[in-house]
Amino acid sequence: MYLFKRKEELERHLTTARNEGKHIGFVPTMGALHQGHISLINAAKENSDLVVCSIFVNPTQFNDPKDFEKYPVTIDQDVQMLTEAGCDVLFLPSVQEMYPDGLTAKMHYDFGSLETVLEGAARPGHFQGVGQVVHRLLTLVQPDKLFMGQKDLQQCLVINRLLKIIQSHVELVMCPTVRGNDGLAMSSRNLRLNATERINALHLYKGLSEIKRQYQKENLKTLKENAVKELTANGFEVDYVELISILEDGSVIFPENAGVTPLYAVVAAKEVSSGVRLIDNMLL
Ligand code: AMP
């Protein structure tokens, strides 16, 4: 696997590959890799000739500075996992490399209501930061396909929108959420949970599973309230539990108000004893 820290080195390597007619698959990450990330590398390998992964803990997408400081970094292990998975290129830029003119936003993207609901409401400015970094990475890598996880469903919707805004022909491939044997969605932030907290974190998965089991027979509002009650009773501060649908234009609607069938159950909550905020979702 090639490892590049400088933009110019990466661009040179990829220009040669592109001139050889290779189709490039791209997997952007923030590192502390797990099998969820590796599933994206595998999907990229199956669907492209050359796979590029980036690891960059993007400061502009953290609305909580403590979350940024505590974000796990396991770079040696990441390199080993990517090598074993057969990734071709790892791009590992510094903050200076990605933001040579400083962190103040140069662009503002109109993500519409995606920025005011769910993660958009809970994490002000988060999606603008995601937009900044993904736009810069796409300009450098110029992939044919971009692989992202359903785990971050709303992020996929935002990037879909970004691709339209920047008139990009990159194809976004959304890959299913990889879970542990017990059902917990894999996440880099799980590394910050001790054994007891990790078991407690399973309540997110249990809550979503219960909604999936009941949503056709039960009132949606009651279902949501029950899930919030259960999570709160088990030591969570709940940001939201919602049932959502997605319109053709990629915006989110709330079936409860619109009289349509829900498509996903989504949850975000902080496990209080660890202080770790977790998100998850489930296709209904
Ligand atoms: P992150 O490193 O958390 O920014 O995630 C990088 C990419 O991996 C994003 O597209 C995530 O949606 C995806 N991802 C994270 N966790 C999982 C998972 N458990 N299953 C599938 N994809 C995931």
TrEMBL record:
It is found in: Cytoplasm. Pfam families: Pantoate_ligase. Its EC number is 6.3.2.1. Pathway: Cofactor biosynthesis; (R)-pantothenate biosynthesis; (R)-pantothenate from (R)-pantoate and beta-alanine: step 1/1. Belongs to the pantothenate synthetase family. PANTHER family: CYTIDYLATE KINASE/PANTOATE-BETA-ALANINE LIGASE, PANTOATE--BETA-ALANINE LIGASE. This is Pantothenate synthetase. It comes from Chitinophaga sancti.
